[in-house]
Design brief:
Blueprint lengths: L1 H14 L9 H4 L2 H4 L8 H4 L3 H15 L2 E8 L2 E4 L6 H5 L8 H15 L1 E8 L5 E7 L4 E6 L2 E6 L3 E3 L4 E5 L6 H4 L1 H20 L4 E4 L6 H13 L13 E4 L9 H16 L14 H31 L8 E6 L8 H13 L5 H7 L23 H18 L8
Antiparallel strand pairs: 1-2, 1-11, 3-4, 3-8, 5-6, 6-7, 9-10
Length: 409
């Protein structure tokens, strides 16, 4: 029986390429229930789990909020490559119906949840990208032909790899598929809570040692219901009532929900405090978790995006001049007091100018702000002897001219 169903599944799947994801076909097409798979969790149904939605939204929106630009390198200096033909496509206008934020958020969300995020590149006659279009993962078929690898995309036809932006998760697999059984417990816990609070809990049972006819059972049931929720009820026919209530806390309902939410955070590598799960965190803890989130979670996604965009948007002949960068500086931005100390030290060391600091704080430059300063109270050890002699000669000369004047000796 199972072999027949599996053959039917294969035949049906071939006819529905693009509608179902091959990794989740058994669940999405309901064949899994027939084949014995009782866990019905897919990328679509998993989004109803609050922790999954929060983690996916946190990662994708954070990546989308980073400023992606094409930069131009000239010697030791760099500037925004606004003259590059694809600059506006990447930074602000990927297509006619999406902002850059929505584009990056959508592709990243597909990659986070499904393991694969795609976008089709349309190019001009010179080969530069003039638009980018996000496509759902289940509308893309990655195939290998005698002529090489090619993508079959609904609405776009056959697309060559060089015209397809590909953002992949670990092993190109969906974390929802890999952890379907684990997430199934979250769904079961949620359904239990829904039934518990909708239908009410079982508070007790009525039992008897004597057999009852159908009419007697109906009479007892009707009599019990007629008495409503009164504090005292009469049980006829020698029946006995036994109370068997259990609270959600005793059933570990809340504990299971919290544990499953933490499991989801582990799956997506998101600190619990960032999805408002941990109520025991302090300001310092949250700040450290945000930095950890930037380094351990967002940075790998940024690396994926930057390397893929450099491969697909920057032509090989201009790779030594232009490059794509997503600015993560804001994610490491400290509080105002820490920034003041940092900028003060950088200016005193001559590393940054006043205008560079103002640029970091989104302020306009000022006249004379491009000058770099350096403190003069620190000199090299091998120059200390000469510096000491110069000071001595200078002080002696000043004392000879006006011995009564205080020269700070």
């Amino acid at each position: 029986m199972a072999s027949i169903l599996e053959r039917l599944q294969t035949a049906f799947q071939r006819r529905r390429i693009g509608k179902y994801d091959s990794q989740d076909f058994d669940v999405q097409s309901s064949f899994g229930m027939i084949l014995g798979n009782s866990v019905n969790v897919t990328e679509r149904t998993a989004m109803s789990i609050a922790a999954v939605y929060a983690c996916a939204s946190k990662i994708s929106s954070t990546v989308a909020g980073l400023d992606a630009q094409i930069w131009e390198q000239s010697g030791n200096s760099k500037q925004a490559g606004i003259t590059h033909p694809s600059y506006q496509v990447l930074s602000s206008r990927p297509n006619d119906y999406q902002t850059a934020f929505e584009f990056f958020e959508t592709v990243t969300a597909y990659a986070v949840l499904r393991g694969r995020g795609y976008a089709v590149i349309e190019r001009d006659e010179a080969g530069y990208a003039k638009s980018m279009h996000c496509v759902p993962t289940d509308e893309v078929e990655d195939t290998v032909t005698p002529n090489g690898r090619v993508f079959k995309v609904q609405g776009h036809g056959m697309v060559m790899p060089e015209n397809m932006i590909e953002i992949y998760n670990l092993n190109r697999q969906s974390p929802i598929s890999l952890h379907r059984e684990n997430l199934g417990l979250s769904v079961a816990s949620k359904n239990f809570g829904k039934r518990y609070f909708e239908d009410g809990q079982l508070t007790g049972v009525i039992s008897t040692d004597q057999p009852l006819r159908r009419e007697q059972i109906k009479e007892v049931r009707d009599n019990w219901r007629e008495q409503g929720s009164a504090g005292i009820k009469l049980v006829p026919h020698g029946l006995k009532y036994q109370r068997i209530s259990i609270s959600p806390d005793e059933a570990q309902f809340l504990g299971v929900q919290k544990f499953q939410a933490e499991e989801v955070c582990r799956i997506f590598n998101v600190p619990p405090s960032l999805i408002w799960l941990d109520s025991q965190t302090t300001y310092n803890n949250v700040e450290q978790q945000q930095i950890m989130f930037a380094r351990q979670t967002i940075s790998p996604w940024v690396q994926r995006w930057e390397q893929e965009l450099n491969r697909k948007l920057i032509q090989s002949r201009e790779a030594d001049r232009y490059y794509v960068r997503m600015n993560m500086d804001e994610m490491y931005r400290a509080d105002m007091e820490a920034r003041i100390k940092f900028y003060d030290g950088m200016i005193k060391l001559g590393v940054m100018s006043i205008n560079e600091v103002r640029s970091k704080e989104s302020l306009n430059p000022v006249d004379g702000g491009d000058v770099h300063f350096v403190q003069v109270n620190q000199i090299a050890l091998n120059q200390f002897e000469n510096h000491s002699e110069n000071l001595a000669n200078k002080n002696g000369s000043n004392l000879g001219e006006n011995p009564t004047e205080d020269d700070g000796i």
